[in-house]
Automatic annotation (TrEMBL):
Keyword Metal-binding: yes
Coiled coil: none
Protein name (database record): Cytochrome P450
Family of this protein: Belongs to the cytochrome P450 family.
CDD domains in the record: CYP142-like
Gene3D superfamilies in alphabetical order: Cytochrome P450
InterPro entries named among the record's database cross-references: Cyt_P450, Cyt_P450_B, Cyt_P450_CS, Cyt_P450_sf
Alphabetical keyword list: Heme, Iron, Metal-binding, Monooxygenase, Oxidoreductase
The organism's taxonomic lineage, starting at the top: Bacteria, Bacillati, Actinomycetota, Actinomycetes, Mycobacteriales
Cofactor(s) required for function per UniProt: heme
Pfam family, one: p450
GO terms of biological process kind: cholesterol catabolic process
One Gene Ontology MF term: cholest-4-en-3-one 26-monooxygenase activity
Length: 409
């Protein structure tokens, strides 16, 4: 098998995403020699790997020619069938005009005005978690003790989930997004791989019923009682809405915070620069998000015969948009493997582009900014205390362990 074909197959191998050197070597080879590559791997339905930034952007723009439905995420053929049987329809599964209408239900909760109102609360939470770091005695696993909990608290508070249920939601979101990782996934037979999703749906169905009987001033109530064409959302659609906000609003941000911490530790000159010049925070947050790229890829389906970068794509074929590759594209980013908090321009695609641009992008940026804004002035020293470990995944993920040693005031 040609080397470039072996490189393309890496995109359907969860373990490859836990080996950054191997992953990025494969993606660089694809960008250089076969930017639109056919991938046929046992256990998965075939797809085309799209690795150039310009091609990813072009496909994102053409949202009627390349649709999210029916395959928005790379999963095994078995998991594709299981999700279809359950009837999951989250925002990432929908296309216009349905997508536009359903997205609008939560849009105001993530608008700049709402984010400004949440700023003070997020600052309070950031202080609590930096205090928690200090109270560990100067050494901790930053991922499990800090990074997964801070954004979980933010998004669950926004939804209106009781704090007593936060541990359950953490467990379910990690099992759902970590289903390809031996450490994080459920220790169940393969035919029970969707149990975390089913359990999450059960939880949110009860929440929906509660908010419909007793509406409150939270996002869960807004979703539960929203009407489209005069009708409440179906049970599956409303629970799907909660599920995508809970998982996307938590796992992506926790991965960015932990990956950003690792990047700053491994690039101490950048850490010092940011500490000395806090006005660089906005740019630093963008570089952290590009560097980590917590959403590794999304899928699209060709609604008609198309051509991408000179390659004919038949109608009905799937395409994988590799954000991990696009965000290291040498044609777009000067020295893309350099972590640079002052990178300008920084046209990363970590939040997607076009009509499916991440609904919670503003919230994620604020959480990263507020956490670092609280930590850095109090930080006296920080270093790795062990080997960082990444999650095996083909969708959303980042570090699962980051042992650090530090001194905090």
């Amino acid at each position: 098998m040609p080397i470039v074909d072996e490189a393309a197959n890496v995109l359907a191998e969860p373990a490859a995403y836990a080996d950054e050197a191997r992953l990025h070597a494969a993606l660089a080879a694809l960008r250089a020699d076969k930017p639109v590559a056919r991938v046929e791997v046992a256990g998965y339905k075939p797809f085309w790997a799209i690795t150039k930034h310009a091609d990813v952007m072009a496909i994102e723009r053409a949202n009627r020619r390349f649709t999210n439905w029916p395959r928005p995420v790379l999963m095994t053929a078995e998991s594709d069938e299981m999700q279809a049987a359950i009837g999951i329809r989250t925002l990432i599964h929908m296309d216009d005009p349905q997508h536009r209408v359903v997205r609008a239900i939560a849009a105001d909760w993530f608008a700049p005005k709402a984010m400004k109102a949440m700023g003070e609360r997020i600052e309070e939470l950031a202080k609590q978690y930096v205090d928690r770091m200090r109270d560990t005695g100067g050494e901790c696993d930053f991922v499990s003790e800090i990074a997964v909990n801070f954004p979980l608290y933010v998004i669950m508070s926004l939804l209106g989930v009781p704090e007593s249920d936060f541990p359950l939601m953490l467990k379910l979101t990690q099992e759902l997004m970590g289903s390809d990782d031996e450490e994080l996934k459920r220790s169940t037979p393969p035919d029970e791989a969707m149990n975390a999703l089913v359990e999450m749906f059960t939880f949110f169905t009860a929440l929906t019923n509660s908010r419909r009987e007793h509406p409150t001033d939270d996002l869960a109530s807004a979703i539960a009682n929203a009407k489209v064409d005069g009708e409440l959302l179906s049970d599956v659609d409303v629970v799907s809405y909660y599920a995508i906000i809970a998982t996307a609003g938590h796992d992506t941000t926790s991965s960015s915070i932990s990956g950003g911490m690792r990047a700053l530790i491994e690039h101490p000159e950048q850490l010092d620069r940011l500490r000395q010049h806090p006005e660089l925070m906005a740019g630093a947050v963008e570089e952290i998000i590009r560097w980590v790229t917590p959403v590794k890829a999304f899928m699209r389906t060709a609604a008609e015969d198309s051509v991408v970068n000179g390659v004919s794509i038949p109608a009905g074929d799937s395409l994988l948009l590799s954000y991990a590759s696009a965000n290291r594209d040498e044609d777009v980013f000067d020295d893309p493997f350099r972590f640079d908090i002052e990178r300008e321009p920084n046209k990363h695609v970590a939040f997607g582009y076009g009509v499916h641009f991440c609904l919670g992008a503003g919230l994620a940026r604020m959480e990263i900014s507020k956490f670092l804004g609280e930590l850095l002035p109090r930080l006296r020293s920080i270093e790795l205390a062990g080997e960082p470990e990444l999650t095996a995944t083909t969708f959303v993920g980042g570090l699962k362990h980051l042992p650090i040693r530090f001194t905090i005031d």
